[in-house]
Specification:
single chain; about 450 residues; alpha/beta; Aspartate Aminotransferase, domain 1; Aspartate Aminotransferase, domain 2; 2 domains; five-stranded mixed β-sheet; three-stranded antiparallel β-sheet; 14 strands; about 40% helix; about 15% strand
Length: about 450
Amino acid sequence: MANSKAPWAEPYKIKVVEPLKVTDREYRLNAIKEAGYNTFLLKSEDVYIDLLTDSGTNAMSDYQWAGMMLGDESYAGSRNFYYLESNVRKYYGYKHLVPTHQGRGAEHLLSRALIKDGDYVPGNMYFTTTRLHQELAGGTFVDVIIDEAHDPQNLHPFKGNVDLAKFEGLINRVGGGKIPYITIGAPVNMAGGQPVSMDNIRRVKELANKHDIMIVFDATRGMENAYFIQQREEGYANKSVAEILLEFASHTDAATMSGKKDLLVNIGGFVAVNDWDTFEELRNMVVIYEGLHTYGGLAGRDMEAMARGMEEAVQDAHISTRVKQVEYFGQLLLDAGVPIVEPIGGHAVFVDARKFYDHIPQDQFPAQALAADFYIESGVRCMERGIVSAGRNKETGEHYFPKLELVRITFPRRVYMQSHLDVAAYHVIELFKKRHEAKGLEMVYEPTYLRFFQARFERIGK
């Protein structure tokens, strides 16, 4: 909009509603104790406003629901696959498509296809499932993001950028032959939804090409990244999000996608590549782990909904409003002095738990404690993104201690209105006022993999 102060409204209207359950504090306290102070283990029926994730929690449109009725449930060669393939080529530009049940299915296939034991896989900050699949395939993740990304209050407009000196340093140290690909998350989830600039991805491509290293685009929220380029990078203000997305993808060789985010569906994903030999390996493996290469673990109707969601989600009006909702919520917290990651990201507001609970040491899981306390205070569910999510060093068994100890408050697309955001912000602010009363947690159960999903905790000094 020309006038940034002009009011705005969501570009859709409500057709179907789902009642929300309102509970009292005592009820919520019992619920979180039963869940081991892990918001992932709460029952959804006990949650008032669910801001745990934007993954598979989006509201589909009437256009998508209509498409669900056109599902071609043939085992092989479903017409919905060819529609999805056509749209991937149109909006992302990749030549070959292999559908998967969700994003981690795509990560699994690509990791097994490309990584050999002893390889190194650089990336602009880790993501939980991505790094685990790389490690299980025999690789070692190496963080090559710029240093500004690890500072929550740094206002760099593209904190997701790759530090080219770090990337080149790894190449010089281990050799290009030991680096099958570099992963580019855009925007970077674990850094607070921070974008990557077009200039940076061009430079990464130049360096990678010199050493025959593939670039894999984690395109899960790539449309949000394109929007940030449109808003922040010189030369892109008059280009559409669709044009910018296609250009960004053109500087990469492959992509993994969780359609449960950008593409507005409840299930689905894909891996897309340009290289024929890589595609051949992927479509051979998908038959083992997911399903035939023309359905990849999805019903035809799910592929149809994903293809239609792609058409809707890339529209400027949609993505602009999606990001503005997040910015609105983040600004409410900033105005009240609540420490959050800045600049505000596109899918979530990340509260700086290290500063919020500055009296709780990191090995007492302050972000996990804050997520639990937020639920007790309000009935709103969010999640931890700190030491629990970071996991342990596979060699030493010691906790990783990330510089970012965050609580992610995530917004599903087309689900909540501004009034829901006001309620959630009010309770964060109220919790901040009495923050020094909070106590840390101890972990009493730890699963082998991706512990943040199922770990259980108890309150220290209860």
